[in-house]
Amino acid sequence: MVTTDAARSVTATFTAPPTFTLTVSRTGNGLVTSTPGGIDCGTTCTSGPLSPGTRITLTVVPAAGAPFQNWGGACSGTQTTCTLTLDSNKTVSATFANGFTLSANSASVAIQKGTSGSVSYNIASMQGFTSPVTLTLTGAPAGVTGTFSPNPAAPPGNGSIKPTLTLNIDGTVECRDYNLTVTGAGGFLTQSVGLTLTVTCNGLKGEYFNTPDLTGPMLTQTDPKIDFTGWGSGPPIQGIDPETFSIRWTGQIQIDRAESYLFNIITNDGVRLWIDGALVIDHWEQTDHLVSLEKGVAFNASGLHDIKLEYSENTGQALLQLNWSSNSIGWQVIPESHLTTPKSSGAPPTLKWTGEPNYQTDGLDPETGTVNGTSFKFRVTYTDPDNNPPLPGYPRVHLLQGGKEIAGSPFEMLFEKGTPAAGAVYNYSRLLQAGFDYTYYFDAVDATGLQAIASPAAPTPAVPLTGPQVGVSGTVTLSSPRGAIVMTTSAGAFERIDIGDLANLTVPPADTTFPYGVLSFKLQGLAPGEEAVVSTTFPEPISGEGQPQWLWYDSQNNQFVTVEATGSLLSGGNTIRMTLKDGGMGDGDHAANGVIENIAGPAFKAGAAPPPPLGGGGGCFIATAAYGSYLDPHVKILRDFRDRSLLTNLPGRLFVEAYYRASPPIADVIRKHDSLRTVVRWTLTPLVLLIAYPWGGVALLALILTARRLRKNRP
After folding, report:
1. Which tens digits make up the pLDDT trace of 693-715?
2. Is residue 653 classed as helix, strand or coil in its secondary structure?
3. What CA–CA distance (Å, rounded) separates 49 from 51?
4. For residue 403, what pLDDT is reported?
5. What is the pLDDT of residues 577-588, one digit of tens each?
6. What's the burial of 211, exposed, middle or buried (CB within 10 Å: 0-12/13-18/19+)?
7. Which domains, from first to last, does the chain contain?
8. Closest CA to 601 of 520, 518, 544, 672
């Protein structure tokens, strides 16, 4: 407090509160980010000015092959985050170690039991890494041993080294697939890659189906020989129906001498035998007694030859035996020593869309949902070059909304038809609610552990396929036989769009063709009476005999009429724009209810000029010439009057058609003379005011009539 008894001066000095900064330095290949503070180091390594007491969390993002080593300065330790409070300017350092990457030349290897095989690996140096990398093998069953050479393996700085893994399989190992892991440890880094080991055996690969016609999901195993006299009424293997099943065996048969062999099958069911792709025994029918089937085959060369045997059981006792004999071999069951499982390509399965009717190219039907929610059916074809079925639970469809998988995703797909070798079709159906756009992709893992993810070229969850479009969208893409049609709207949003069937409408105008059919769509979310400009881009310019025009289907009067549209489509280009008005021209329901329903399309009418255009936002030739612009407010009032009061009834439509035929040359004269433009404006303005303010016009007319009557009655 200051008490004065005379004039005095007072000075107040304010000191700004202090601010602090945080500076980060890094060594090696990685990033450091902050929350808050704006640090992205990388590029920005110093925070902006921060108030005392601000808490900042730093997070490290190591690059591939360059693990985070430790913090320094105001942070310490090896954890990937550090939180500190600013009470002064601080500095922090982050050190990323140099490292390596580990990869395999093949993700799988097939080795016959009792032999050995090898797989090559690649260790690549990152940032000059030269430390030795120690390799280990895990997941191998008893009887399988692995040796790396060299081990440890030290890559040259910024170079690579290729160690080899040799796998030895003894005679006790079961013939099936094994998932192994190869791990490399060096410096601060450990990296692992998977390896699928397929141990093959003498015998044939058996594919067991729960149906009598070799369809549906299957189980696989290796059968040493075909000598099944003990099935009786029981199942051939666990998990297969004992009454209705079928089996396909494939592999190769060893022929020791180039001579003729007699193949013999004893069975009481359907059977087929192929040798080197030729059908030699065909008995695909059920019997109630044992039959013995024989066929001689001449081999011109010894060695391995392809063999396939199919068997079908449809109730009753089951029995099957495959025998042979030759000049050098007595009659016997073909022994295990002369049968081998088919060679595996080691290639993963593939997934692609069915491309069947209604599914176009993306495995989805329908393309677009409705406002009340839609049940979408997803479809994919699974193909495996080695005829390996997918693991249980695959293929799957991943459904994402806003980049995140929805609840329950991914979803197992149901088998529909086909085989893994030729292509097996799977499907999945799900109800999706309106108001969202979804993305999706497919994945699968085959029985050997090899994975497939459906196209596109970068098939990761971050770049999934587009669609389905459910509910509303301001831009939609419609597939047609000629390519994609893209439509956008300036107001509202598309709820539905498709290519309409002319047969469901009315007879088109005589001598008229629609090269794209008619586009049927519904816009919602408009204010009652609002206008929307709908732009459509076609995949190519239209072509046909006659005059191009844009026709709209007026459902109220059950006829096609020509409407005015701008753009290049009707003059050799591929775009078109329509101005539609809710409740007016272009709205099929003729109600100002916030929804526009439209059926229209490009057409060719042979041997005639196009009819005069109706609506669509243009056609007020004289008013546009007088006021100087199509966008002038007076012209817009006249356009709205035309759409609202004239084009909604037959007399008004006839008047508009007559006006359109007569007005263009008159408008050309008015446009060239300013004096005429002034006169026409003075003539049209009262009419515009009367349309815009009808009650005011009525009142003015009443005043004029009253004044005239008073004047007439004055003495």
Report:
1. 766 666 666 666 666 666 655 55
2. helix
3. 7
4. 64
5. 888 888 887 888
6. middle
7. 22-97 (no CATH), 100-200 (2.60.40.10), 204-340 (3.90.182.10), 350-360+375-463 (2.60.40), 475-605 (no CATH), 628-694 (no CATH)
8. 518
